[in-house]
Amino acid sequence: MPDVTVRFRAADTLPARDLWSDIVAREPGSPPPAPAGRRVAAAIVALAVVIAGLAIAVRAFHRPHPVVPAGAVANGKILVYNLYASAAHQIWVMNPDGSGMRELRKLPANASLPAWSPDGKRIAFAIANSSSRPMEIWIAQADGSGAHVVFACADHFSTAKCHQVFDGLAWSPGGRQIAFLLGSLYVMNEDGTSLHRLYRLNLRTVSSPPAWSPDGRWILFPRTTGGAPGAGGAGNLYLAAADGSGIRQLTHCGPIGHATCAAVLPTWAPDGRSIAFADETTGAIRTIGVDGSNLRTLVTPPRGMWYRNPIWSPDGNDIVYEEFPMLGSKLPPIVTVYEMRADGSNPITLHVSGQPILLSWQRLPSQS
Q1: Could you tell me if residue 10 is left (phi over 0), alpha (psi between -120 and 50 degrees) or otherwise beta?
Q2: Domain tally for the chain?
Q3: What is the CATH number of the domain that holds 172?
Q4: Nearest of 179, 111, 196, 103 to residue 149 by alpha carbon
Q5: Which residue in 1, 136, 168, 319 has a CA-CA distance of 20 to 30 Å to 308?
């Protein structure tokens, strides 16, 4: 605060008091003994101060990543994968209203599945595996410059492992770690060091990237589990504890063919209290509380269409999503981008060129 700074500077100009003359002029002596009650009270106060200090120290050293409350950040640009773009540069950015689409030409060829860092200054992305090149994870500046490899799959895993389907990545809230799905859930430092498998469980995921919770405690991902003969599996959302202590099932959709939902492409609300996802059973965009309660439908598509790829705005006020024709539909393959309020109200069409797939919304420091 400016007034405090001025006061401190003014205090620096005051002449120092001559305490030494005052001290040497005093007569030696001992202070009178304090009453017993006062000594006990002082001891209790001192003990309380010590306990409070220890509690503060413990909390300081074991505090999770801070949650960025809704409204504390501004909405930046949206990363999209443009299907109609040139093969060399398919990662584009656009403004929240759908305007100003431009390709990030400084990224290497075949870059895919990008995600903004929590501070909005960098992009992590993958070079998808191919017959001649195993999967890699790269990091670049927000404009695509300075791109460099932080994880080369071939340096850690077998050829067969590196040619599994790569389902995407997610930054930790503090930007110090990256989680990714490659047959299982892995976590590494942002520079590629300290790679470790978070769970020994093999995850039959459904081509959806993981999503790290705003408080840093959970990593969210969809998973398909096997079902009884003839019943098929079930697609549900799961929460993996970021410290590796356990996995918790969030949705309970039931087996395919009898499912009440099939959750994919989840995204956290910035306040960490709820999750939006695409429901492959109904084609709707739905939300659910982080404790598994309050499953509700925000918006339902017209017949023959799917709503997909919901992304919560960093300020927590809006959700963008897309409309696709269902598989096998005779409708033209046109992608329409929509934006609605976070409660599902006031959906509007954004006029976006090409065939974008929404991937990540940039968080910027608040302008207020």
Answers
A1: alpha
A2: 1
A3: 2.120.10.30
A4: 111
A5: 136
